[in-house]
Design goal:
The chain is α+β, with helices and mostly antiparallel strands. The protein has one domain: Orthogonal Bundle (Cytochrome p450), CATH 1.10.630. The protein is built from 17 helices and 14 strands. The protein has a five-stranded mixed β-sheet with strand order 1-2-10-7-3, sandwiched between helices. It has a three-stranded antiparallel β-sheet with strand order 4-14-11. It is globular, with a radius of gyration of 21 Å. This is Cytochrome P450.
């Protein structure tokens, strides 16, 4: 493959199909990091933006949250999709800035503190055992993503939120349609109105859940959010259901991608799998490396509130910036051999969870789930290999593997 031009490389950042082709994507991002790390992107269908591809520059933008805000454009979408979502008035944490963001983040923060997560650890370990048992009973060959990786994190986050188990399949479909709207396998259709219908259906479901928890509070996260008070006022219905939607989607698909991408990495790097199996104390470091390697959240957007500069490039007030976490996590200046998968990697300053005030709320839970799953799986996994071609989802926001056929033997 010939090296992409700067124009081709910049266009790839906004092309969902590029994220389903890792060679093409990383070639484009490497070209930008080397020659145009703050690149202007003007591509049909999208409002213009700057692509920020170096780890150092991403961190600088994340630190300056007073200069670079999440609102009004937190996620890369087509201009038409931005208009449709604005009409729905969705208001999640990723759409907010301080001081409102800090207050809203505090509503669910206690659910992700170490003390709370410690009480959940044994239950998550039990669930990991259940899904490893399912893998063992699957007959030595399966699609690891669809049969294992999507279900374990789904069960964890939906149970935490308070969704009845009977509704888990519906939630799985809706979360995949929402975050996978750019992939033909997950999207309801190519019609943006149909994509919006998945969001409205989830909102309708969560509106009913919120009403139930206000009438009869329980000990789940849904009750905490539904009955929260900020600045002396109860949360509005749109704020409650937006919060639910964020927890449901971010708490599921990102962890699914990390677990499935971690499995692929262990299959393709058998020496690292043996190293980790022989020393499970490496699991915390290995989990961070899996998250860096996969980078489930591909990018977030920021908007400049004043004339400024990034990496020496002038940025005008009102300009949008795309923080390419995928690129930052393979930056040669930030990581020793960034294209080497290393379960014992030290000083792993990846940006997969973001940084600063918008650092991922659920990061501790995701780390716990990954460690619990592989702590259960690896001692029982005698051998594993690919049984077909892995397939990645087309996306510019959240995604990873959607199919991982494996052949394996369990102890």
């Amino acid at each position: 493959m010939s090296a992409p031009t700067i124009h081709e490389a910049a266009a790839a950042v906004a092309d969902p199909s590029a994220y389903a082709d890792e060679d093409r994507l990383h070639a484009a991002l490497a070209r930008l990091r080397a020659s145009s790390p703050v690149a202007r992107v003007e591509t049909p269908g999208y409002n213009p933006f700057w692509a920020i591809t170096r780890h150092e520059d991403i961190m600088a933008v994340e630190r300056a949250n007073d200069v670079f805000t999440n609102s009004p454009r937190p996620v890369l979408m087509t201009a038409q999709q931005e208009e449709l979502q604005a009409a729905v008035q969705i208001r999640t944490l990723i759409h907010m800035d301080d001081p409102e963001h800090k207050k809203m983040r505090a509503v669910a923060l206690n659910w992700f503190r170490p003390k709370t997560l410690k009480t959940m650890h044994s239950r998550i370990d039990d669930l990991a055992r259940i899904y490893v048992d399912k893998l063992a009973s699957a007959g030595g060959e399966c699609d690891f993503v669809q049969e294992v990786a999507v279900n374990f994190p789904l069960y964890v986050i939906m149970s935490l939120l308070g969704v009845p188990e009977a509704d888990f399949p519906r939630m799985l479909q809706l979360t995949q349609e929402l975050v996978g709207f750019e992939d033909s396998e997950y999207a309801r259709s190519a019609d943006p109105d149909d994509q919006l219908s998945a969001l409205l259906e989830m909102f309708e479901y969560f509106t009913k859940l919120a009403a139930q928890r206000r009438e009869r509070p329980t000990d789940d996260m849904a009750s905490t959010i539904a009955n929260a008070v900020v600045d002396g006022e109860p949360l509005s219905d749109i704020d409650v259901v937006s919060y639910y939607a964020l927890i449901a989607t971010a708490g599921h698909d990102t962890t699914t991608s990390s677990i499935s991408g971690g499995m692929r990495a262990l299959v393709e790097h058998p020496g690292q799998r043996r190293r980790l199996t022989d020393d499970l104390d490496l699991l915390p470091a290995a989990a961070e490396e899996m998250i860096r390697w996969v980078t489930p959240v591909k990018a977030f957007m920021r908007t400049a509130t004043a004339d400024t500069q990034v990496g020496g490039v002038p940025i005008a007030a009102g300009d949008s910036l795309l923080l390419s976490y995928v690129s930052g996590n393979r930056d040669e200046d930030a990581f020793d051999e960034p294209f080497r998968f290393d379960v014992g990697r030290e000083m792993n300053r990846h940006v997969a969870f973001g940084f600063g005030v918008h650092f991922c709320l659920g990061a501790p839970l995701a780390r716990m789930e990954i460690c619990s799953f592989y702590n259960e799986l690896l001692p029982r996994l005698e051998s594993v290999s690919l049984a077909g071609e892995p397939e990645l989802s087309a996306t510019t926001f959240v995604g990873g593997l959607k199919h991982l056929p494996i052949r394996y033997a369990m102890r």
